[in-house]
Amino acid sequence: MVFQKIRKEAINYTMIDNAILRKLQLLQLEIAKEIKRICEKHGIDYFLDTVLFGANLILSKQITFVITLNYFIQFMRQAANLFRDATGTFYYDRWKPIVEGLINVVLSICFVLVLPSEYNVVGVIAATILTNLFVCHIVEPHVLHKYAFKSSAKTYYIRNYVYIAAFAAALCALHFCMVDMSSQWLELLVNGSIAVAIAIVPCTVAILVNKDFRHYLHGFTRKIFKRNNSDN
């Protein structure tokens, strides 16, 4: 719903610049909430499955990790894709799906052949992650900045890959911070709290150090104070 509203606004702009894209990318950092939800899922699904459905239906932590990371990487494409569609520049990356599909299939086959059978699913999802990182996350912002913004995508690349790296690091930290307890419910509570903490802290820091966030926060608070003064 949020992205649909922004899409309508983006189409109405006659001059689209990097500031708007940064604003949308900052909105994706409201992913603070999304990351929190994903990390909680990554941390407690193991225990929920154990308690509710039994141990036979539990996914391995490796599969859960790559699924969660892949979901986040896919989500981080939405800002560039939204403006690509709004500006009509999708024509310039018309060959990307073919290249993306070929690389994904080749990598998936290679990983299935090379990795042990218990890691075949992980290898296929890892192939999708690599394809997204080194094809989609490079081509789509490049096309948008070159043909719509008429500028370099370097800053966008740096910010985007830093966010992804921070999220992957948070997932790794979550994996090593999990604790085992005799009580499943206590284990669920403790590990769920750890997951929430690991999700909130880096996301809060990332948002606070973002200059665009500080700019919009300053404008928002100034409007509130101005409205309060006018009411008085």
Walkthrough of the structure:
This protein has 232 residues and is mostly helical. The chain has helices spanning 2-12, 18-28, 31-52, 61-75, 78-87, 96-114, 120-149, 154-177, 184-208, 211-231. Helix 1 (2-12) packs parallel to helix 5, helix 3 runs antiparallel to helix 9 and helix 4 (61-75) runs antiparallel to helix 8. The radius of gyration is 21 Å and the shape is flat. The two termini are 36 Å apart.
Summarize the structure.
With 232 residues, this protein is mainly α. Helices cover 81% and strands 0% of the residues. It has ten helices and no strands.
Q: How are the SSEs placed, and which strands pair?
A:
Elements: H1 2-12, H2 18-28, H3 31-52, H4 61-75, H5 78-87, H6 96-114, H7 120-149, H8 154-177, H9 184-208, H10 211-231
Helix pairs in contact: 1-5, 3-4, 3-8, 3-9, 4-7, 4-8, 5-7, 6-7, 8-9
The coarse silhouette is: flat
How many strands, what sense, and barrel or not for the largest sheet? none
Q: Approximately how much helix is present in the residues?
A: over 70%
| Arithmetic mean of pLDDT | 77
Distance linking N and C termini? 36 Å
Write a concise keyword list for the protein shown above.
232 residues, mainly alpha
